[in-house]
Amino acid sequence: MDKYISVGKILNFHGLKGEAKVGYSKNRQDFFMGLSSVYVKQNGDYLELVITSCRPNKKELLVKFKGIDSIDALLPYKGSLLFVKEDTVRQNLDEDEFLIDELVGMSVIDSESGESLGFVIGVSNNGATDLLSVKTKSKNISLVPFVKAIVPKVDLKNKKIEINNIEGLLE
Hints:
By secondary structure, the chain is mainly β. The chain contains 4 helices and 12 strands, in the order ββαβββαβααββββββ. The protein has helices spanning 29-33, 71-74, 86-91, 100-103; strands at residues 4-14, 19-24, 37-42, 45-57, 60-65, 81-85, 107-110, 116-125, 130-136, 141-145, 153-155, 160-163. The strands form 2 sheets. It has a 6-stranded antiparallel barrel. The protein has a 6-stranded mixed beta sheet with strand order 10-9-8-7-12-11, with no helix packed on it.
């Protein structure tokens, strides 16, 4: 069974011919503009929408879908999340990029001592960088900047993340 990942949302219409204003995942404009189709979830099923054109406009994209040629045809999709198959996203990840669901649950270990420090319970972004939410052995939750200087190694195969545990990082 295919897994789907949200990559955007139909925010509104643009013009009279069914063009959609689409919000997209941060820093993913080029990825979205390279897509030939997306999926929208309706009644529990994923319906494919073929993209015929896509262009940037301010902080969103203007997207035209095949067969949607008026405001009335687009309105049922307003507010809908847009998805792609997980494999499509994986193929476009850079070497040091990961899906959040891959990181959640991974063990966090000290890169020097090899000591277990806790595990990842979530990933967030503060506008400047991604942050790993780590539940420590003492049951506290600490936010760890997901940058190479602090997180030098992510081992997906063994489900371990090594961190340089600088003083005060994990409480």
